[in-house]
Each structure stands twice: as structure tokens, then as C-alpha cells.
Amino acid sequence: MTPAETRAAIPPKTDVTPDLPAEPITEREDGQGSVVSDSTVDSEAVGGGSDQADATLKRRFRWTPRRVDLAVFGGFLLVAVWVTSQIWADPAGRVASLYSSDPAQVQFFLAHSVRVVLHGEFPFFTEQFNYPDGVNLMANTAILALGIPMVPVTLLFGPAVTFVVLVTLALAGTASAWYHVLSRHVVSNRLAAVVGGWFCGFSPAMLSHASWHPNIISQFLLPFIVWRVMVITRSTRPYRDGALLALLVTAQAFINEEILLFTAMGCGIFLIAVVVQRPALWSAAWRPLGKAVATCTVIAGALLAYPLYIQFAGPMAYHGLSDAVRDYGNDIAAYLAPGSPTIGGNQRANVNLAPNYSEENAFFGWSLALIAVGIVLWLRREVLVRALAATAGFYAVLSLGERITWWDRELMVGPWEWLVRLPLLDAVVPTRFGMITSVVVAILLALAIERSRSLPLDPRTLRTLTAGGLVLALLPIAPMPLPMTTRPPVPEFITSDRWRAYVGPDQTLVPIPVPNMGNTHGMRWAAATNLDFKMPGGYFLAPRNGNTGDPGRFGGRPSGIGRLLEEVATTGRTPELNDRQRRRSLDELRHWRAAVLVLPVSQPHSEPLRQTVEQLVGPARQELDVWVWDVRALTDRTA
């Protein structure tokens, strides 16, 4: 067995590796990224003929490992701020230029976290939207593990500011976490760890979700979960290590369960790939692995038992995703194109290569894709690299979805066709498997930089080749500021609390048009008041027809008045309504216990909307910047 195979036949180095030094050595990087001890630096400074003052200055300002770490973390944070700079300019007035629904939903969930902390509300279900059926928040990624710690920020500055804070910290935190784990347990070269962390935090897949999904890009726990899984394969304290893993798993479950499932699957596939190549490793690993996994299952199962019961069997639980997203898949060509929010990206060129611009989960660009393949071929003798390549390939294939396509031309049926109906996998968006492929590519880049130190090249040539390769691989997909556009402000009628004169505790405020997947402004109104009023409709996943256990769909029960007003808002045409339509609309308003209907004066097609609503409930009255219909007298009547 070659030295490289011996080094790679086991999972990455962890804190239980026996050959770690007993005492910490203060280290820094030399000009090639190599780590050298500070004692060597000091002796070189003094022994080289420098005067005492220069030697003292060098000792005082040397780059210690801690300072290097802080500089890397600060650099990642600055990049994250630059990426989100357009929304930082006006968090409440700017939103992603393509889709505005997901940020409004996240802001609603952040406001719900405030109510959980301040009012002790039930965290896993709410009736504050989709009244009276309510929404199962465990089945809708309510990000409690992010929202609850951010309650002070939400109270002081509002959920719109909290949203951009979360996105910024998610990008920087994910990059920093991967850098930390890679630099401590996988590679000794700091440059290699920086590059790996960079790509984990700022890959095109992460950038594509950054405008909309802070829960998906909040992956700062994943490297620690992966690290602890590797630890338990040869742990001397499996019960303790299993308990630590359980706490990480529980926390990640309240950030995003889908990414947690992907990570668990990836760890399993990686370990299987290692054992297949080196079966003898299993005899030493199965005992500590079994004990730790059993401990993790018991503890995490106990902590998550009730929330998962609510998610899968509680009110408004659904089984399986909406047909609108379950067949989302990447085109093969997506792996060769740069992502839209990058230097080399082109939205028009990426049409049909991904389900939409918020799901560009591949998009490495041709140069990085070829370099990644080249790394695997170069280091193919290493067990670690072959296992990583198998994991990346597995996830890349699954990310193609039920139909494998090349430049939007269908080639064959994909394996996802036979997996999509399995429990848990039926709630997965397949295109997102590509995010795990990105993580594996980041680790391969780090390993390539680390292994390049052994090449028989002079230092200058090695530095030149390394820099050139990184520029070729990463420059075309370097992040750009996320594009934003303005959005309507929350009406003064809401922010000044004028609505409180109309709406009682068991009544609803009905925004016009009724909130749905394509119109979520009303959800932002509610979030701005910390959800002090209830409303019908909204953007969420729920069982079809409101029957618990049905397949999922976006939105609640079909609403006649909701569809009517949505059509008017889209077309700008005022329909002529008959008595039957009026009676059915009043029945729905009574079912919602509506107190007041609110239409912003500046709403697009506000005049046709006003005329339509007046046919249903009578004349409107303008109050501040909205049209208001006080319908309490109508909805209090018995049918």
C-alpha cells in the first residue's frame, strides 16, 4: 500500500487520531501556504543577521494561527456583506428581483418566533394565517433555531432586517465553519482550507438560494455533523460522541430537515464507499459506530419525537410535496454553466437548465467541472478521493430528477423516478442534491492544493500553477451582489395601528387580493405587527383540500373570492358579479370571521379591485393609504 493510500484509507483526521501532537504548536503559513512553527520563524529572524528591533517587531506582529483564523472569518464576512449589499441598502424596501414570496414567508416565520418567546405561543402550529385551518409550521420549515435567537434583532429592527442579517451570517458562517473543520481535521495547508471553505459558503448553489432561503444556506452545523460522524467510526467514547452528534442533529432539524437528510445520506454513502474499498476497516469501526449511532438515535429521537409527530401526524400535516416541485431536476448542462449571480453568469443562457433561478443547485462552470474531474483522475489512487468521487457522482445523478435532460432535451428516465415515492424522499426537491455535490467538490479542491505540495516543482512554479488553477476554476463563478428590486411599503394603515380599531382577537384582517403564493404582501403586513392580527390565505404548504395526510400543495382550501380577486389583480378587468357569487363570497368572509377588508391605494389594478369588492360588500372608505371595507355587520349575521 502506498503512503497516500495509507493516509486516505480512513476518514479525515479527527481529534481522536492517535498521531496528533500531545502539545499544541503555534504555527503560521510560509509563502507557499505551508505551516511552520513560530519558533522557526523567530530563529530565522534573529539568525539571519537582523537587528534586535526587527526581530522584536516580527515577533510582535507575526501571523499566529488565531490571527489567521480571524482574518479568514473577517474576509468571509466582508464578502457576504458585499453579496447582500443591495438589500442592505434598504431591507424593508428591497427584495429579490425575480420572486418575492419566499422572503415574505420567512419574515412571517421570524415574527412567529417573537410570539413564541414573548407570548409563549405553540411553536409548531399557528392560526395567524390561513385562518381558521391554520398552518403546520413543522411541515413548513419555520426555522425556529434561527428565528428564536434573532428575536432581539426582530424586535428592535423588524423581520426584514433580521432576514438580511440571517442571509449574511449564513453565507459567512457556512464558509467559516467548513474552513475551521477542514483546517483542523482534513488538511494542514491554510490556503487549501480557505479555498474549500470559500466554495462551500459562496458556491453558485448557495448564491442561488441566498435571496430567498436563509434556512437552506444556513449550513454552518453541517461540517461539524460530518466531522462527528467521522469521529464515531473510531471513537474511544462512543456514547459521549453519539450524544454530541444528537445535539447537532436536533439543532439542524430546526433549521432545515432537508439538508440534514442530505447530509446523513452523504455520510452513509461516503462510509460505504470507503468500506467497499477497504473491508478490513469495518471490523474496527462497527462497534463504536453502532454504539454512537444508537445513542444519537435515542437522544435525538427523544428530543424530536413530539415535533416530528406534529409534522407528520398533526393538524394540517401533508404527505409528499406538491406536484409543482417534486419533479424539479437539473439539466446535465447545468454542471458546465456558471450560475446566474456570478461574474460569468448569464440568466438568459441558464433558461431551462434549472427549474428556476432560485434553484440553480449545480452551475460549476466548465472550467471547475473539468478541474474537479482532473483532480479525481490525478488522486485516484487515494481511497478518500475515490469515496468522495462516488458520493459526488451519486448526488449529481439524483439531482437530475425524474427525467435526465441535456440542454432541455430528454435523454432517459432518471433513478429518481423510482425513489421519489419513498418515505422522507417524497418530501425532497431533487435538484437540491446538487448542493452536496458542491460540498464534495470543495473538499476535492482543498485536497488538491494540499497534495500539490508533494509535486517535484520549485516553489515559484508551484505557486504560479496553483494560482492559475484557482483563477481558472473559481473566477468565472465568483459571487456578485444579489440583484434586488423595490417592493411596496407596508401601508401606513398597518404600521400606525389604525387596523386595531376594526379587528378583534377572534377576527381577521383580509388583505386584497387575498394572500397566496403569488401575492404575499399581506404576510409582510402581519409580520410588521409581529402577527398581532389573523388573516386568511397565505403562502405555505398544506394538504390538499385541508385534509390531514393528503399530498401537499401550495396554499389552503380553494377559495372562490380568492380566485376571483387574483384574476382581477392579474388582468385588471372588472367582472360583473351575480347574486350567487355575492352569496358565496359572503359565506367565505363569514367562515374567515372577517372584520375588515384592506386594499392599498397604490396596489396595481387597485381601481378594478375596488370596484369588484364593492360589488360584493358595498362602498369603500379611504383611510390613510388604503381602501377599507368594514364588514363586521355582514359577517356577524347568521347564514
Automatic annotation (TrEMBL):
Pfam family, one: DUF6311
Signal peptide: none
InterPro entries reported in the protein's UniProt record: DUF6311 (IPR046278)
Top-rank lineage group of the source organism: Bacteria
Transmembrane feature ranges: 68-89, 156-179, 191-210, 261-280, 292-312, 363-380, 387-407, 427-449, 461-482
UniProt keyword list: Membrane, Transmembrane, Transmembrane helix
UniProt keyword Transmembrane helix present: yes
DUF6311 domain location: 120-420
Region (Disordered): 1-51
Identification of the protein by name: DUF6311 domain-containing protein
